[in-house]
Amino acid sequence: MNGLMMDMPLLISDLIRHADRHHGDTEIVSKRVEGDFHRYTYRDAHTRSRRLAKALAKLGVKMNDRVATLAWNGYRHFEIYYAVAGSGAVIHTINPRLFPEQVIYIANHAEDKVLFVDLTFVPLVEKVAASLKSVKHIVVMTDRAHMPTVTPASPMANALCYEDLIEAEDDKFEWPTFDEKTASCLCYTSGTTGNPKGVLYSHRSTMLHAYAAALPDALNLSAADAILPVVPMFHVNAWGLPYSCALMGAKLVFPGQHLDGKSLHDMFEQEKVTMSAGVPTVWLGLLNYMKEAKLKFSTLKSTVIGGSACPPAMIRTFQEEYGVKVLHAWGMTEMSPLGTVATFKGKHTGADKETKYAVQYKQGRVIFGVDMKIVDAEGKTLPNDGKAFGDLLVKGPWITNSYFKGEGGDPLRDGWFPTGDVATIDPDGYMQITDRSKDVIKSGGEWISSIDLENIAVAHPDIVEAAVIGVRHPKWDERPIVVAIKKPGAKVTKEDLLKFYEGKIAKWWMPDDVVFVDQLPHTATGKLSKLTLRGEMKDYKLPNT
Ligand code: ADP
Known about the structure:
CATH topology of the domain at 13-258: Rossmann fold
Bound molecules: adenosine-5'-diphosphate
Largest sheet: 9 strands, mixed
Number of helices: 16
């Protein structure tokens, strides 16, 4: 016997329809590529998304067709999110920080039909356009006055103007209804090894994730919030915020390409932002700027930090010096991305400060929908005792089942998705990432966590950023070394930094060396690229070997 409830599929178009009907005058503010601020409301966004949906149909975009973007966080990108998925097509957000060859590879692999591009990325598109086999139309996300001037021979010579497309249509358009399992968005993983792989979300998975992410013990979103996603809309859909914010009716503030400390702080203050989200590298820039300029936040209450381990020192600085609560979160592209968030339980009420910090340093506990376990090399489940560590496996309705076009075969292990992370889970269900399995340092048959060693290095007052990698050792197989950037003018020596480790770790975890550098390599999503670093350090020899 079926229940007698209305049969309504979970569709992304319902989010923007809801935001229009029930939060119609709530603002969406964008710092534009053109330099100025743009302000409008969810109602305006819904109107323009419908006009864009009509324009897409005229360009020949059909159900399941892929429509790509190379764009910053902004209102036009937001409209494309809804117009494309709402029409039953698939939005493919390309990371513009990828190398041109990778952009070509994924656009061809995805068979993108239309490509929307922000003005910033016009030079990139000019470089790659001739190699994009399936793209029929390129649309520049600007108005007529700002359209780039190009030579008649340029691949951009026939590019369309975004505002012209919108102008030409009215909003007499009803979102179509279709199966909620229909694909909605496509994101490629950065592919640290091999080619990038496509993760294909559905309307159902996106909607369930949007609900779950908004919960109090997840990102704790509300209609009373003003939210500035620093995490790009080309990086796992800005962690789902463009959906969850519409679901809650929260004000959205889009920073465009202006991600430096000053621009961000100005926007936080001007738009009375209460909540934000981004990777540790971005916050590093903001905190350094604020310290130098002696600034505070007047409205910011919390920020989500994830994408790579948030150093304990950063959590403490945010909370103690700026009164901003840190939500340490973990996830991955294959998980839409949210898996765990480090929020407290009832038992922590009244707990002392250090006990609470110990909770927040971990990556957190699962939000309902996700299940997780750790296993050993034979696949045997390990205990949740906070000590045993093993491969972290996950399952849930917003977790990848297989990659686009079956790339790489079946990724699952007995119905669970292997995350490639090594972790512990404690009896209260809090998970802590020890390392990515590729980065863990194997010394004398035991494992050393590079994340733990990095966290200690960046807690030193003279260190800005640090990476710890394993280097070949004739006896121990691998030994850890610290590659670090000093603060400008700082006098810290190798010996000082090693001394700083004493008493904080087991003796055999002590790094064998410290190398100071001016820069560390980062991936297209702003994380430390240890793969590149290991390449850069390939001629390095450990002292005394
Ligand atoms: P890519 O790095 O390829 O862009 P993702 O953005 O999907 O891919 O990265 C997912 C990975 O990032 C996770 O598997 C994990 O290793 C790492 N990660 C994400 N959040 C955290 C966190 N809070 N702490 C430690 N590692 C994290």
